[in-house]
Amino acid sequence: MKVTGSVRVPGDKSISHRALMFAALGDGPSRITRILDSADVRSTAGVLRALGADMPELSADFVVTGHGLRGLRAPVRDLDCGNSGTTARLMAGVCAAQPFASRFVGDESLSKRPMGRVARPLSAMGASFELSTGERLPMVVHGTELEKVEWHNEKSSAQVKSAILLAGVCAGVEVVVREPTRSRDHTERMLAARGAEVWVNDDAVLLWPVQGLPALDVAVPGDPSSAAFFVALAALATEGTLTLPDVCLNPTRTGFFFALARMGVRIDVDDERTEGGETVGTLAVSPGELRSTEIAPAEVPSLIDELPMLACLATRAEGETVVRGAEELRVKESDRIAAVVGNLRALGADADELPDGFVVRGNRASLKGRVTTHGDHRLAMAFGVLGALPGNEIEVDDPACVDVSFPTFWRDLDGAVR
């Protein structure tokens, strides 16, 4: 299999969500370009519209006119988050600081995911919550004037941390969030770019009280989690180089690239620069002889979304690949540990579950069968890449589920393979 050409991956999903939120909470017009126009990001736009934000339809280039931290209004309908956990958890932080109640709902998949992890710190700040059985959606957030908090996250979670930071921003109070290891830091970077005083080290974030957020134009860089699928595709190839321009290279998001480099993949970075507080560059990826690796718990936050792809890639790596400390995968869009291992075994791969991860033993046998995605976009794309390898015959049961993060994935996959 030969890879060639260039693939421009969609705008970063994490940054796209936050760009909409900060623009709606800002003072005046903010121009947003290259946003990810996907189902998840449209959910955030819809929730903000329901809260009275001046939010146009998403496009390649549009303007959001913010009305300040106190500019949102009580919703007259449920806040429908679709399949987006980022929307539900981060907007819970925003709504916790508003003088009204908001009811959050989501699709069947999102309604199975835990929300108590954001309700607890926001309740400690003074908000109150009504959660469904199992601390899940539907969820009612009763906003109020919040108090400052110092919160210790038992597990590193960018969504929980961001919910607390957004609550602190909207309430104008000081917050401190501590974590076992550093999670994604887009919220901190985007706040600092808007002039907020944010202090960060390896295990804590301190946000001083904010009185307002200035408008700021944002050009959304390419999503490294989406780029990971094409980096893996190039890794599985026998020849060629695949180029991925303008990818976000935030150091809390590049663990997958470092892991693949250990596995023998050549990844070069060109045109590296800083835009809006984020490191951006062009990746040039070439195949190598794949060997196994081990992922330690401390690495997991920097590649949590890429682990299904890593598992699929490990089927073609020499030796035994082991991932530990990734129990968070069990409460994503699906139980990704069970789903990845179950699908790999059904296809004929040698894989086992661990309570907090998995083991995959590489071989060169052809893999054949039908993959059950459980509506999980990352499973669909990971097995789609594995299915592109000559000799494999893999059918993905729900290819359309990739629309939540990468609507052009299948077309781009076909175009990259020769």
TrEMBL record:
Q: Name one GO molecular function term.
A: 3-phosphoshikimate 1-carboxyvinyltransferase activity
Family, according to the entry, reads as follows:
Belongs to the EPSP synthase family.
Its source organism is Gemmatirosa kalamazoonensis
**High-level lineage:** Bacteria, Pseudomonadati, Gemmatimonadota, Gemmatimonadia, Gemmatimonadales
Q: Which reaction does it catalyse?
A: 3-phosphoshikimate + phosphoenolpyruvate = 5-O-(1-carboxyvinyl)-3-phosphoshikimate + phosphate
**Which positions fall inside the Enolpyruvate transferase domain?**
2-413
Localization per record = Cytoplasm
| Classification via HAMAP family | EPSP_synth
Function text: Catalyzes the transfer of the enolpyruvyl moiety of phosphoenolpyruvate (PEP) to the 5-hydroxyl of shikimate-3-phosphate (S3P) to produce enolpyruvyl shikimate-3-phosphate and inorganic phosphate.
Protein name per its UniProtKB record: 3-phosphoshikimate 1-carboxyvinyltransferase
One GO term describing the cellular component: cytoplasm
User: Which positions bind 3-phosphoshikimate?
Assistant: 13-14, 18, 157, 159, 305, 332
Against InterPro entries, the record matches this protein to: Enolpyruvate_Tfrase_dom, Enolpyruvate_Tfrase_sf, EPSP_synthase, EPSP_synthase_CS, RNA3'P_cycl/enolpyr_Trfase_a/b
